Amino acid sequence: MASKTESARDESDDAPAESTDSESTLETARRQLHRAAGHLDIDQNIVERLNYPKKVHEVTIPIERDDGSVDVFTGYRAQHDSVRGPFKGGLRYHPDVTRDECVGLGMWMTWKCAVMDLPFGGAKGGVAVNPKELSGGEKERLTRRFAQELRDNIGPNQDIPAPDMGTDPQTMAWLMDAYSMQEGETTPGVVTGKPPVVGGSEGREEAPGRSVAIITQLVCEYYDRRLEDTTVAIQGYGSVGANAARLLDEWGATVVAISDVNGAMYEPDGIETAAVPSHDEEPEAVTAYADTVISNDELLTLDVDVLVPAALGNVITEENADAIAADFVVEGANGPTTSTADSILAERDIAVIPDILANAGGVTVSYFEWLQDINRRAWSLERVNDELEVEMQAAWDAVRSEFERSDVTWRDAAYIVALSRLADAHEARGLWP
Ligand code: NAD
């Protein structure tokens, strides 16, 4: 994801930020909190509590490099809120990881889990390191040492990490192994996104793309469009983009454009998505299979029914929001629309279905994985997909009724649903002592 500009804004400054294109992740998360709170009659003390993380762990991680030298990296785990259940969120390995970014992304996870009504709170963590500069052995040592440093603060009932940028199922398997070795018992539920052979769930990898496709189908239904008459452009052909594209294609939509970092394939009559390898199957191969290549910028402004940005953050901006020609934007990536662009699209009556709902299939199947782990019982792929559909429909129904009741944008409706659930839980539990 394109890194969002880090701001020098102090953590203690809790006023909602101005909506700008250079907003940091933390500012965005706080601004959304205050926007949603403005629509609800909730105790300001609860809003004040949600404005801050519960805890942020900062650790140093020394590792021995392959040449025998020692390097020390900094790792974080920001635990935002756990009123509804254990903290949940990814661990990323990226040079731009900072404390504030983890706090902001942890807040997003709180909203995402709440809008999906999952019994989890929000967290995010990571190590400020370039994983491309680590050998496999170095990455394993880094992960095991990070797990050890965080051991007292994670666990199936405390905080459950998952893969994110720069980490993958293998990283989660090492983390689970390191934790289990120290605990003296195999504890698969400490992380999700593991390989199925050590307690990972079937369908986890495809889940964010599947939820994007399900939500796109529900949007079309809501606005009386037949999927068979719907054209779709999708930026990014990785885990989220390719899975969403293939499902929508299979369900009858016409996918006219897909892209990777090199550019976009454009077929006005529809792309046979199964014939184009995804990022995972053959990295950055989309344009090699294309007869007509257009740029990623052109893809974003195609006159289609549905636009799915599923590659990077901050791609729909003040610069191009006026040129977006789609009727609906379904956010596959995290944070693809800047705040300013969001306001422009709202003024232009373009419905934007927010990331915290559309791509939440990932954390939802992570929840299923955690259930399978603690119950020691694996589910079939069919069961995972059926239950995901049920959860997506329920979340959609809740957001749709808020959208209709409050006459707000889809994004605001999703945040209002999330915040009201959080506020009710805080209200019921009270402030201790
Ligand atoms: P991925 O690495 O599998 O695929 C990314 C795709 O984007 C690739 O096709 C790549 O070529 C393309 N891309 C990279 N840079 C680009 C650029 N400058 N312009 C156009 N395309 C570009 O990643 P992913 O897992 O599919 O994640 C995509 C987005 O979805 C990210 O924002 C991620 O945070 C978000 N997301 C992922 C998951 C998940 O579990 N995979 C869950 C929720 C949200």
Automatic annotation (TrEMBL):
Keyword Transport: no
SMART domains: ELFV_dehydrog
Residue ranges constituting the Glutamate/phenylalanine/leucine/valine/L-tryptophan dehydrogenase C-terminal domain according to the UniProt record: 201-430
Signal peptide: none
UniProt superkingdom: Archaea
InterPro entries according to UniProt: Aminoacid_DH-like_N_sf, Glu/Leu/Phe/Val/Trp_DH, Glu/Leu/Phe/Val/Trp_DH_C, Glu/Leu/Phe/Val/Trp_DH_dimer, Glu/Leu/Phe/Val_DH_AS, Glu_DH, GluDhGdhB, NAD(P)-bd_dom_sf
Cited Gene3D superfamilies: Leucine Dehydrogenase, chain A, domain 1, NAD(P)-binding Rossmann-like Domain
Compositionally biased residues, Basic and acidic residues: 1-10
Active-site residues annotated for this sequence: K124
Molecular function via GO: glutamate dehydrogenase (NAD+) activity
Region (Disordered): 1-28
GO annotation terms (biological process): L-glutamate catabolic process
Stretches that traverse the bilayer: none
UniProt keyword terms in alphabetical order: Oxidoreductase
Pfam family, one: ELFV_dehydrog_N
Residue(s) at site: Important for catalysis: D164
Subunit structure: Homohexamer.
Family designation: Belongs to the Glu/Leu/Phe/Val dehydrogenases family.
Protein name per UniProt: Glutamate dehydrogenase
Organism in which the protein naturally occurs: Haloarcula nitratireducens
Taxonomic lineage from the root: Archaea, Methanobacteriati, Methanobacteriota, Stenosarchaea group, Halobacteria
